[in-house]
Amino acid sequence: MKITMKHKILFSDADRLIERYYEGLTTVEEEKQLRDFLSQPNLPERFKPEQAIFGYFNRKKQKPQFRILPYVRWASVAAVVAFAVFSAHLFTAENKVNYAYIDGEKITNTQEIKSHALASLSDVSSKNNEVEDGINSLNDNQLVEQQLDVFSELK
Amino acid sequence: MSQERFKAEILPLRERLFHIAQKILVEEQEAEDAVQEVLLKLWRTRDSLDKYDSPAAFATTVTKNHCLDRLKVKNRQESLDETYYARAGNENPYLDLERKNTEEVLQKIIESLPSLQQAIIKMKDMEEYEIEEIAEITGTKVEAVRVNLSRARKKVREEYIKWTTA
Fold it and tell me: Which among A121, A93, A123 has a CA at the least distance from the CA of A113?
């Protein structure tokens, strides 16, 4: 049997195909036509059970595709976001300049910053001596003994 | 295993598999259904059949296990049916909830079909096999497949209408 109208079949054709469907007589091709017919909205009430049943089988057929689609969609969203972040990063990185605040003044000259930094480092190293002096005074045995004497007096 | 080899090596075992099935299930029709199901199962997994030293021995084992499972399910289903009807008599809010979901209802209806009908309706309506192909795989007459398919489809419709209008 051949049906020439591919997409739009008449209600009477549909009724006949449905009857044959339930007898197990329809071919895969005829069932495709029936499926197309049943996927239309606003069909008469009598087609409701077949609409539900064909819709169910159709969804089962398409399931693998449905599973892949959201994944691809989210992956593409993720790719766009990643690209945007990356390019924004590149853009702002280009404008980045070395700078330092010295006595509240912003300096962008690298050489100047370096000399200031070295100067303050030598400051620190000179202060090392002070630390050592402090430690030496702690080592002063006399001082320790004096303080211990205070305790011995309590005895 | 190719389609041709399946037909040449597995299908000739049909008679032997049927005897095994009948020993376990006793009833001839049940044994026949079981063998068709086993053949469909083997068909689906034909790509991995080459792994076995003897596909024939494997088919025998599958048949035995399948028939034993069938026996178990049959016993269980008899008791399940009783509880189902006992419950359906009363108002059950869970049944109302289930009614709302067409997808779930249809899935349950299909799952409640005899397993051979289930296998056939899935192959025809989801995987788009022609009846002739299914008949060839199961080594049965086209008419036998058509009858099973027709029963399955009518049952789905009948049960679906029952669920949605009750």
Answer: A121
Contact A56 B103 (CB under 8 A): yes
Domain that holds residue A18: 11-88
Question: Does the CB of A49 have a partner CB in chain B at under 8 Å?
Answer: yes
Q: Do A60 and B156 touch (CB under 8 A)?
A: no
* Chain B nearest C-alpha distance from A89 (Å): 48
Do A76 and A110 belong to one domain?
A: no
* The CATH fold of domain B92-166: Arc Repressor Mutant, subunit A (1.10.10)
Amino acid identity at B113: L
- Min Cα distance A37 → chain B (Å) is 16
CA A61, CA A20: separation in Å to the nearest integer?
A: 22
Distances (CA, A) of A154 to A142, A146, A147, A151: 19, 13, 12, 5
Q: How many residues does chain A have?
A: 155
Q: Tell me whether A57 touches chain B (CB under 8 Å).
A: yes
Q: What residues contact residue B25 under an 8 Å CB cut-off, 6+ apart? A: B31, B34, B67, B70, B71
Q: Is residue A47 part of a domain?
A: yes
Residue B127 phi, psi (nearest 5): -100, 0
Q: Which is higher by pLDDT, B11 or B88?
A: B11
DSSP letter, residue B101: -
Between CA A38 and CA A26 the distance in angstroms is 15
User: Averaging pLDDT over each range in A90-99, A100-109, B22-31, which range is the top one?
Assistant: B22-31
Residues A68 and A113 in one domain: no
Instruction: Supply the pTM of this predicted model.
Output: 0.59
Each residue of B103-160: pLDDT tens digit?
888 999 999 999 899 999 999 999 999 999 999 999 999 999 999 999 999 999 999 9
The rounded distance, in Å, linking the Cα atoms of A82 and A75 is 10
What CATH number should be reported for the domain whose range is B1-90?
1.10.1740.10
In this complex, do A57 and B126 lie within 8 Å of one another by their Cβ atoms? yes
